[in-house]
Specification:
Helices cover about 25% and strands about 15% of the residues.
Length: about 300
């Protein structure tokens, strides 16, 4: 299927959709480093521009519109969550483009905090908005670890289908492929397994982006100070979405340092040869804001199934 990608970032979602056989024909992001990363690794169809300054006529019709609209205002890590936060309102640009272009499907990604914002009223309003735009809507809360990603990463995926296509939702949301205990499905992929090919001394690495934060790790039970367990998936790869403050790099399971940019990208299931542009903090942020490529590919395979078998 042809795809329009909004708030594309470095392109984790787009890359997975492309790997599944779809075609992203137009993409947009405001972050210059992320756009450079995208162009160097995925393609030159991305526009570096504030979405507020893009006229609807500039955005082509495609079968699908996707995007992880900015989530910092929705995140439970933001203790000042406010339904009037300007970053929350950016979702309206996503909504307006979907309403105007009327793609067959849309897929939106966000943090789990969106479900509880304003007592659950925000997600209800989002669903109502898209219903009124002519779409069936499903909201799915997922943990990326359940899909073979070596990381605990809880996110919300909102799927919409234009109501004239069918009265029931044809998009079959991907079923988990892994589980915590490994009884009914293969066991979650551990952090140690994912990084097994990487030297413990990152200075021995020769791959691009094989360097990282020297910020000292002190074990505490919050954000980037949580101890990593080699036998379990990584803690959530984090990002400082506003580009301010220091690096938020996850500790390596050896307890002696933090993950390098390359190791963080591997946890997010980016290919080894995917090179991130910009300074260290920017690279970490791009990775932390991304959708894991392996999970995105599963969404893309469902789009291909619909294209080949249904539509």
């Amino acid at each position: 299927m042809t795809i329009t990608s909004l708030f594309s970032g470095a392109g984790g979602l787009d890359l997975g959709l492309i790997q599944a056989g779809n075609e992203v024909v137009w993409a947009n992001d405001i972050d210059k480093d992320a756009v450079e990363t995208y162009r160097n690794n995925i393609g030159h169809h991305i526009i570096c521009k504030d979405i507020k300054d893009i006229h609807l006529s500039e955005i082509p019709y495609t079968d699908v519109v996707v995007g992880g609209f900015p989530c910092q205002g929705f995140s439970i890590a933001n203790l000042k969550r406010n339904p009037k936060d300007e970053r929350n309102q950016l979702y309206l640009y996503f909504y307006t483009i979907v309403k105007n272009n009327q793609p067959q499907f849309f897929i939106a990604e966000n943090v789990k905090g969106i479900l509880s914002l304003d007592g659950g009223n925000i997600i209800k309003q989002i669903v109502t908005d898209f219903n009124s735009a002519g779409y069936l809507v499903e909201v799915h809360k997922i943990n990326a670890a359940d899909y073979g990603v070596p990381q605990h990463r809880e996110r919300v995926i909102i799927v919409g289908q234009r109501i004239d296509i069918a009265s029931n939702m044809l998009f079959k949301f991907p079923k988990p492929t892994h589980c915590k205990d490994g009884i009914k499905l293969p066991k979650w992929v551990s952090m140690e397994t994912a990084l097994s090919s990487r030297p413990l001394n990152y200075k021995e690495e020769k791959d691009p982006n094989a360097y990282g934060s020297s910020y000292r790790f002190v074990a505490r039970n919050f954000t980037a100070h949580r101890t990593s367990d080699p036998t379990k998936p990584s803690p959530t790869i984090l990002a400082r979405g506003n580009g301010k403050g220091g690096v938020c790099a996850i500790p390596h399971y050896n307890g002696e340092r933090r993950l390098t940019i390359r190791e963080s990208a591997i946890i997010q299931t980016f290919p080894y040869d995917f090179v991130f542009a910009g300074k260290m903090g920017s690279c970490y942020r791009q990775i932390g804001n991304a959708v894991p490529v392996a999970f995105a590919r599963k969404l893309g395979l469902e789009l291909k199934r619909l294209e080949n078998e249904v539509l």
